[in-house]
Specification:
This protein has helices at about 10-40, 50-55, 60-65, 70-75, 80-105, 120-140. By secondary structure, the chain is an all-alpha fold.
Length: about 140
């Protein structure tokens, strides 16, 4: 499907689908991280079962980020391609800014260590904020 007019039903549906899929994956990732942490604290696991359990939360991450590249390559609508690229960059910038600031605070002994699994959650937050803001801005400009 292509998208040439930002406020068309096709564009809005495609953008909403991508944002919803990313949001669902982020929620599944967070729930899986909490569940795995609880399981590891509760049950003494080792070997392949521990590796499997630890890697389980990465499945939603791959499920949401993996298809973005092929989707971007196949999308012929310049508006959606631009919108997705900007959202990905804003998400990455948001994640890098927060993790760099937190890392500096941690190095100075002013903040506790933050696990690296928060990077994906931060990227999703930045990506979602960017998607919402860009579509809201385009709708306001068209009105």
């Amino acid at each position: 499907m292509t998208c040439h007019i930002p406020s068309s039903p096709t564009c809005l549906r495609l953008a909403n689908d991508l944002t919803a899929d990313t949001s669902r994956a982020a929620l599944l990732y967070a729930v899986a991280i909490i569940g795995v942490k609880w399981a590891l604290d509760t049950y003494p696991l080792s070997g392949s079962s521990q590796v499997f359990l630890v890697l389980l939360p990465t499945l939603p991450l791959v499920a949401s980020v993996g298809p973005m590249g092929p989707y971007y390559g196949e999308e012929t609508g310049e508006y959606l391609r631009h919108h997705l690229a900007i959202s990905i960059m804003i998400g990455a910038g948001f994640m890098l800014a927060i993790t760099t600031i937190w890392g500096s605070l941690t190095d100075a002994g002013l903040a506790p260590h933050m696990s690296s699994f928060w990077a994906y959650t931060l990227w999703c937050m930045g990506f979602g904020i960017a998607q919402s803001t860009l579509f809201l801005r385009s709708r306001i400009e068209e009105a």
